[in-house]
Amino acid sequence: MPQHKSAKKRMKTNVKRQLRNKAGKSSLKTALKKYKSLSGTEKAEGFKALQSDLDKAAKKGAIHKKRASRLKSRLSP
After folding, report:
1. Contact status, residue 76 vs residue 47, Cβ threshold 8 Å
2. Of 18, 32, 39, 59, which sees the most CB atoms within 10 A?
3. 16 in a structural domain
4. Overall number of domains in the chain
5. Residue-level pLDDT at 10
């Protein structure tokens, strides 16, 4: 347990960030599963939504920007 005031604050902020990142990653995983379940013509429109979700997660720091780019290139229709 931290003793200094700044260490206590850092612990609080780390927990907040951890929860935010966890929520972002979870929603990204469901978006990936939803995209993978789509068929033929639906994939093009679904890819736009997935691309947006990946970019948002990278912008917020939930995932690395190069990971988002790699996923987009692998999953492109």
Report:
1. yes
2. 32
3. no
4. 1
5. 96
64: three-class secondary structure by DSSP = coil
3-class SS string, 12-76: HHHHHHHHHHHHHHHHHHHHHHHHHHCCCCHHHHHHHHHHHHHHHHHHHCCCCHHHHHHHHHHHC
Tell me which residue range forms the domain holding 76. 27-77
Rounded Cα distance between 49 and 20, Å, is 20
Could you tell me the two tokens for 7? 């260490």
Amino acid found at 65: K
* pLDDT one-digit tens code per residue, 54-73: 999 999 999 999 999 999 99
Is 56 domain-assigned?
yes
Q: Would you say residue 13 lies in a domain? A: no
> Per the domain annotation, does 20 fall within a domain?
no
- What does the pLDDT look like over 4-42, one tens digit per residue? 999 999 999 999 999 999 999 999 999 999 999 988 788
